[in-house]
Amino acid sequence: MGVTSAGKAELAGLAGNTGSCTAFTYLELGDGSTAFAVGQTALVSAITGNGLARAAATVSRTTTNVANDTLRLTKTWTATGSETIREAGVFNASSSGDMLARTVLDTARALSNGSSYTYTYDTIFA
């Protein structure tokens, strides 16, 4: 998982309460396998149908090294058709918006109608 340039800028604004910054609370899945690059602003190939579109995540803080040092986003999708997941991203809007981070999965996940997929993204501030 890599943090994008736009994501770093948005985090700096959120930390300093400056600019019109928006918290990262959405997760999106895709089937692109292109390697991560800091200049990316969207998933390579976002999945927009079959019940797997970008969605609001459950947002919490958890402890990795010191109390509450980790931001955690979690979402479970249920597929309504067949898709293969190869990438995931973190966003600050239900559409468009800034992408905080993107990862290419080590192993593609094939989903069929009725199967569920849970993705959790942790940002550790250590």
Account of the protein in words:
There is one protein chain. This protein has 126 residues and is mainly beta. The protein has one domain. The protein is 10% helix and 43% strand. It contains 1 helix and 8 strands. It has one helix at 5-16; strands at 2-3, 26-30, 55-56, 58-62, 70-78, 83-91, 99-111, 116-124. The chain has a 5-stranded antiparallel β-sheet. A 3-stranded antiparallel β-sheet has the order 4-5-8, with no helix packed on it. The longest helix is centred in the first third of the chain and has 12 residues, at 5-16. The protein is globular, with a radius of gyration of 14 Å. 28% of the residues are buried. The model has no long low-confidence stretch (mean pLDDT 96).
